[in-house]
Amino acid sequence: MMLVTETAEKIKRMEIRGAGRIARAAAQALRDHAQALPAQDLALFRSEMQKAAGILVATRPTAVSLPNAVHIVIAGMEGADSAGMAQENVIKRADEFIASSLHAIEEIAGIGARHISDGDTILTHCNSEAALACILKAHTAGKEIEVFATEVRPRNQGLVTIRTLNDAGIKTNFIVDSAVRSFMNDIDLVIVGADAVTVNGAVVNKIGTSQVAHSAHEARVNVVVAAETYKFAPRTIIGEMIEIEERPAQEVLPDEIARTLPHVTVRNPGFDVTPAEYIDVIVTEAGAIPPQMAYVIIREYLGWGIEEFHKTFEINTRHDE
Ligand code: RI2
Predict the structure, then answer these.
(1) Residues near ligand 1 with C-beta < 6 Å?
(2) Confidence band (pLDDT; 50, 70, 90) for 307?
(3) pTM for the whole thing?
(4) Identified catalytic residue from 120, 126, 134, 280
(5) Which domains does the chain have, with CATH numbers?
(6) Centroid of chain to Cα 84
(7) Is 195 a catalytic residue?
């Protein structure tokens, strides 16, 4: 279980972060765990894998890429009639998930880059590998582009974004989060990633995204969301809400200051919800879709049957850390 708890800790501490990256890290941890387990007793193997899955899913509650990836890998045990077969299937599914995730980002980059025109100024918020892949692809295709990247308080993921853009030689402006409205009139296109897409086409992404999208909407600037299909939230079909992670107060205000302010409570939600009407298109590896088509992605592309929506994950241990 060492590898699993190590990965889980890294995800919790955000040493591994980004919805796609945590999904692939969880798949890899399950793969390594399956390989390390003795494949002799099927019931034991299953319960050990379920335990590992529970630990991984409990790390961060918002990005559905995480439970989706875990579900895809763990479902490999279904129908297996020996521990050896279950082990083989889990390993195969983990490998497939990781490869298809990386392939999805390449596909998204190609489609997303076509939404970017030569001479465009793009604004991005947070650090999304899917959104950045679109920008990098447009740049390597020879399009002259300029980017505005936000700081992304309190965890400053904007620093990762500007490093990537800088290293690619893309002209980049680094702005504080509250400067978005001031620059929106200079922006041609907003591109962001997603942690979750709900059945009604709302996008859950880094806190501040809804302000960016609202501001873009007001200024008639198109908003493109780059999201692999495993970011779509199947259980929103049966009415489950996406839990918004509330992170530690210390990320916002140091304890020594907080201690002097007994009437002040720090609120630190990690994510917010952007309604479908502020989003022009969601670019997935299955093609660009209007957000209103999220249902189709969940039903047809993710392939979740209604019985699966109802079947509570046996790994649903989110709250007993
Ligand atoms: P990719 C990140 O969450 C950001 O909200 C980002 O927009 C989203 O995941 C998607 O990122 P965090 O882990 O999967 O920084 O596109 O809290 O990399």
Answers:
(1) 17-21, 126, 128-131, 157, 192-195, 205-206, 270
(2) low
(3) 0.94
(4) 126
(5) 2-106 (1.20.120.420), 114-300 (3.40.50.10470)
(6) 32
(7) yes
